[in-house]
Specification:
10 helices, five-stranded parallel β-sheet, 9 strands, binds N-carbamoyl-L-aspartate, Rossmann fold, alpha/beta, 308 residues
Length: 308
């Protein structure tokens, strides 16, 4: 039987995503029920790029399921530094682990690894391309905060060109109904054309593009802020010029809806001031917590396991 991988968010059906959300809700309510679900199973986290939340939430998820964890958090401490290919590294690690979460700076690396792996591969972020498990986290958060995954206006603000979390979430939301997309970015950081064509226009979804957060904010139900992705820029001067284009502060929130939900995949740099953190509309730290539970549900799904 071939492995079940998660490389792109569309590898999961809508019914599977809804099932993951239901399981995550049950895990939040009844954690004890799942504490041995992955006993004697091992998760490997292979991170060729920096991470705090994604790697630690995967590890914390596996530990909460009673499983074990192994891995590395930088390429320099693996045999990559000696010239080993990603495919060989993954073939090796699949001798020790039952499932692998992998982050890599090259777009498509987890896909290539999955072709030769003996165990399921989860894409934990590939370059400026996709980040499907952040999307599952975002969907669980929207579901918990708003009670639904349809019929809302969502504004994506910041680096929509290189922001992989944006790409995967747009893809996921394009399969729901009644979503209005507003893309807020400077000209240089607009959503890539391939996504507009192959996801939005192909599905006849209307969207607006603007460079003004102030103009867009009053009509939003969800505001998805992002960091300008410094590591993807070819030129330091361009990064410096664009990095502080948008800074969300309490004043900018005055015309916003009272039940606005502010999301951010984190880490934040300057794009949300700490003064916003105490606003009840700031959901980004609750979003972090949800990331652990949805990854617990995902690990169980890909390993074909059920709670007792
Ligand atoms: C994001 C990522 O790595 O793409 N972080 C995360 O996984 N929560 C967003 C970012 O780095 O800006």
């Amino acid at each position: 039987m071939s492995n079940r991988n998660l490389i792109d968010i569309t590898d999961l059906t809508l019914a599977e995503i809804d099932g993951l959300i239901d399981t995550a809700e049950d895990m939040i309510a009844n954690p004890a029920k799942y504490q041995s679900a992955c006993a004697h199973k091992q998760l490997a986290t292979l991170f060729f790029e920096p991470s705090t939340r994604t790697r630690l939430s995967f590890e914390s998820a596996m530990l909460a399921l009673g499983g074990g964890v192994l891995g590395f958090s930088e390429a320099a401490s693996s045999s990559t530094a000696k010239g080993e290919t990603v495919v060989d590294t993954v073939r090796t690690v699949s001798c020790y682990a039952d499932i692998i979460a992998m982050r890599h700076p090259k777009e498509g690396a987890p896909f290539a690894a999955a072709q030769r792996s003996e165990v399921p591969i989860i894409n934990a972020g590939d370059g400026g391309h996709n980040h499907p498990t952040q999307t599952l986290t975002d969907l669980l958060t929207i579901h918990r905060e708003k009670g639904r995954l349809d019929d809302f206006t969502i504004g994506f603000c910041g680096d929509l060109k290189f922001g992989r979390t944006v790409h995967s979430l747009v893809n996921a939301l394009s399969r729901r109904t009644g979503i209005n997309f507003v893309f807020i970015s400077p000209e240089e950081l607009k959503l890539p054309q391939y996504l507009k064509e192959s996801v939005l226009e192909k599905n006849h979804l209307a969207y607006q593009e603007t460079d003004s957060l102030e103009d867009a904010i009053p009509r939003l139900d969800i505001l998805y802020m992002t960091r300008v992705q410094k590591e993807r820029f070819f030129n330091e001067a361009d990064y410096v010029r664009l990095k502080d284009t948008y800074v969300l502060d309490p004043e900018k929130l005055i015309p916003a809806k009272e039940d606005l939900c502010i999301l951010h995949p984190l880490p934040r740099v300057n794009e949300i001031t700490v003064a916003v953190d105490n606003d009840p509309r700031a959901c980004y730290f609750r979003q972090v917590k949800n990331g652990k539970y949805i990854r617990m549900a995902l690990i169980m799904l890909l390993l074909g396991l059920r709670a007792e």
